[in-house]
Structure formats: structure tokens, C-alpha cells
What does this fold into?
Amino acid sequence: MQSMMNTTCRVLVSIFICFILMHGLILFVKGGKSDAITALNIIGNTHTDMCSASNLYLTLDFTLWNEYANLAIYNANYMSTIIYQNKGILESIPDLTFFNLARNVVLTGSPQVFSSGLAFEPDVFSRYKAFAPYAYYKHGVIRLYDLSLSYVYQTSVDSEWYYNLESRKWDNASSILTERHQRNGSTDIQDENILMYFAKQEDGYWSQPYFDCGFSDIWLVTFSVPIFGQDATGKPAFKGVAFIDMNLNDTDINQCDLDDDDESIDIFLNVFRGTHECLPDTKCQFLPGLGFKKGGYSCLQVNGSFSNSEGIFLVILFGIGFQIFWTVW
It folds into this structure.
């Protein structure tokens, strides 16, 4: 009897060692995915009830969001034109005009675009030292708000969406000559050639994904682009930014392996692919529609379906085996 028990113990110990080695092999194979695994752990540990600001240091394929970035670029270049026409200041433009520009971007880009806004330098308005008309979509309503009432963006390095563009040298900003011929009523106005500075995609700044703790409580990525004016010599001068915040919460994270014949590229440049924790003798099946969360997959055996993800099956087997081993021992 004692011999049989010893044999059973040795078998169980061997099973445990195999599981440990197998799990170690999985981690070793995924060793090149350390940044992605770190990001997944941050995502999994971020909760709205006890949240803190979190950034994910990942490279994204922002070209998939060009159509939304163009909305911010349109607003930036429109504001550059208005600043030129008003000789560098916007005192005569009603505040609601700026809020409407921000709202229209959200209206056009929602639900992918969570919010949009403009933020200006101190010399653009005499009545405001800071002005940042902002619109965001929440609970079925677009809300308008001046960010500068509760947020210092002009002098804070933490406001990277603003500081990154403000601190750049714009001497080589893109420009175009516009020939204008128009009339005022029945009177022709003298032709005028206008040199305008404008922003392009490559002038913009994309932030890292971050959790907007305490306000929207969702994962966002911000794109900002410069607004230009001209200095006394006619050179480009930074006057502010137009920006959008992209909502990541509905973006699925695919952790399954990238098949040899799969040439698709997601917004994350497939960085999360291959970070599942299915056992080597199983196949990871992606479960779309779960949003920006880890564990959006199932592990399938050759002969059917099986458990969830994130190593749950391994933990259960290990726990059951340990209980048997302790009882026999």
C-alpha cells in the first residue's frame, strides 16, 4: 500500500513539474512580447472605482485613423485662416463659433471620436489669457466646456498634446500662395495674393494610449495639430492646437497567434498577437466584441471547446492535483 502511495506521489509530482515546465515554456516563447504583456497587465489592473492615470507605451498604426485626424486638421487650418483674416487676434469672433467647431467634429466622428477641442495661445484673445473650447460625447449628449477653466495647458509639460507642438520650431511650416479675386456687392475688390501656412498629417502629434481617470474613465489616444498665425516678418507663428480624443474602449484586443496566411494588421500593429496563455496543445480562438480588455479569447482543444483564458485551466488543474497530492501524502 505504501509503495502504491509513493508511486502515486511520484506521478503527481511529475505532472506538476510538467505543468510548470509547460507554463515556463509559454512565457519563454512570449519573451519578445514583454511590452505587450506589461500593457495588458496595466489594462487588467485599471479600474474606474479606484483609478489612477496610466499610459501604455506602445506603437500604434495611426494611419487607420487618418479620416478622424483630418477632422482636427481641417479645424486647425480653418482657424489659421480666420486668424490671418483678423490680423492675428480673434476678438470679434463669438465664443460659440469655436465651441460649434469642436462639437461638429464629435458629431461627425462619434463614437470613435470621444471629444474634440481647440486651445489657444495667450495673445490670440485680449479677454482671455487661456481659452480651450471643448466638446465631448457622454451618455448620449454632446457637452460643451472650456477646458481652461479647470486645466492649465499652456505651461504644463504634462499637457503633451499641447506642449509637444508649442515647443517645436515651425520655421519650415508648409505654406501655399492663394490668389483671391472677389467682390463686395457690385464692386470688384482688388486682387490679392495671400501666403498661408497650414498643417498636415506629419505636423500632428499622437499621444500614447492613456486612461482618462476621473473624467471620462475610458482609454483614449489624443491627436493634436498646430494652428498657425504670422509674426511681424511674415514667418509662421504657433497660435494653438486643434485636437481630437479617440475612444479605445470599443477597440478589441486580439491576443491569439497570427497565422502564416493572415496578413491583417490591427491598430496596435499586431503587438498583442501571440500573448494568449493557452496551452501548446490547444488553439486560441479570438472573441470579438469584448472591447479594450485582456482575455478576449477561448482555448480550444482539437476535439472541442475548453475553458476560458489567462491560464485559468492550468491553475484549476494545478489546484486539484495539489489537493490530491496532499490527501495521499
Observations:
- The first helix runs from residue 2 to 29.
